[in-house]
């Protein structure tokens, strides 16, 4: 595991060379937050609660959900390119596991993306609408849930990326996946806003445990919800981890058969 930590460390430090890119990414998210804040202010006009969320809870929920989803470094395109141009054959001969290499590399960049977006967004929201009743004792548990959410997102994304062994371009599938996170994943609005039948379906799908569940725990923490989310996240990570590994092994076998 030490070598993967070193890979993450090196990529983390190298990422500061692209700090301007991270900064402008965060500024774009701030613009979206500003627009949504004013939209929700209009929706909440004369109302204290909507589906159990106050205005401040709704906006802080949005910040957390957007920070999680938009922090993904988009390595699907990189893997797709490596498969298509044959560079993956070179990397397979390296003394590390290809999947874990990309996990370490992408996670280091994701930490910077998430942290910068969340901090700048928190400052903006605090000045626009103020804070909310955050449970400080929940911090450790939230960090764990965030790590699992990002890990689940990685394995789903990697399983999509590795389909490049058979597809000419897997980026279109990633685009569809992103839109699922935005909608039924709960990035744009909590699932409680949806019709009951749709909320029930979306609530058991893996997408909601990447955006909706962590964001809801952030603004409305309970240990019952924490253990429920934790157990389901672990289950989905195991499922998609196995799917990723199977696709990877079959893809490598296909590469070897074709003389890659």
What attributes does this structure have?
260 residues; mainly alpha; 11 helices; globular
Order of helices and strands: HHHHHHHHHHH
Count of discrete domains? 1
Report the sheet with the most strands, covering strand number, pairing sense and barrel closure: none
Percentage beta strand = under 5%
Could you estimate the helical fraction of the residues in percent?
over 70%
Low-pLDDT residue spans: none
Mean pLDDT across residues: 88
The coarse overall form would be globular
What is the total tally of β strands? Answer: 0
Given helix and strand content, the structural type is: mainly alpha
Radius of gyration: 19 Å
Number of helices: 11
Distance between the termini: 28 Å
Ordered list of secondary-structure elements with their pairings:
Layout lengths: L1 H14 L3 H25 L11 H16 L4 H10 L2 H6 L5 H32 L9 H23 L9 H12 L13 H9 L7 H8 L3 H35 L3
Provide a descriptive summary of the structure in words:
With 260 residues, the chain is mostly helical. The protein has one domain. The protein is built from eleven helices and no strands. The chain starts with a helix and ends with a helix.
In short:
The chain has 260 residues and is mainly alpha-helical. The protein has helices spanning 2-15, 19-43, 55-70, 75-84, 87-92, 98-129, 139-161, 171-182, 196-204, 212-219, 223-257.
